[in-house]
Amino acid sequence: MHAAETVVRWVAALLLSAVSLSACAGPRDRPIEFVYLALGASDATGVGAVPLTEGYVYLIKRDLDRRMPGVFLMNLGVPGARIDLIKEQVRLARQAGAKADLVTVWTGANDLVNGDDAQRFQEDLRALLGMVDDDIARTIVIANLPDLTRLPRFRNGSNPSVTAERVATFNRIIAAEAKAVGAALVDLFAGPVRDDLVFGPDGFHPNNAGHREIANQFVRVILPALNLR
């Protein structure tokens, strides 16, 4: 079985169990009042943080927990995922009947680093956000890409796909597609890219401090989008 097929089956099982859980909570269970669905790649799973539950998605969930009861997280982050796999996750989520009060999306870095075509990325992102907006959630918060050229792994220019021009192109695409569905944009490109925020062993993923910075930037956009303080 191919790795991608394995991931898709795992995501399908996770979605079915999550949807069943949200539908079948009994009177003794803490009622689910707010569903947060996270879409992304390794960063969404907490890679670079120790432990993984210090990743930005879990930090966002904890912040929401402090502000409202009954927050339920469906984290569909998959290490290494590119936009095509994340789009398939959304298709499966829709097929499983998943509904969410908030969806966060952070994608594009793996596509850019691997030299994927920007136009194809835009087409897939448009389809992904359209499915979320039409059938899953009305509140969507999506982040753009930080300046990947300043990360230790790419600073020496060894990867010809990681250029300032491609980062700018991907970010224009993310901004345009976010605007098309009324999604709120987290401007990570305007945020800091410092070595003390990067996981040292790979020079790419955020470390604990980096995940906190990303979570804080997401939360600053999420709160007004949800009319929360």
TrEMBL record:
Leader sequence residues: 1-25
All copies of domain SGNH hydrolase-type esterase, residue ranges: 39-212
Keywords, alphabetical: Membrane, Signal, Transmembrane, Transmembrane helix
Transmembrane portions of the chain: 35-59
Record-level Gene Ontology MF annotations: phosphatidylcholine lysophospholipase activity
SUPFAM superfamilies: SGNH hydrolase
Superkingdom, taxonomy of origin: Bacteria
CDD domains: SGNH_hydrolase
InterPro entries: Ester_Hydrolysis_Enzymes, SGNH_hydro, SGNH_hydro_sf
Protein name (database record): SGNH hydrolase-type esterase domain-containing protein
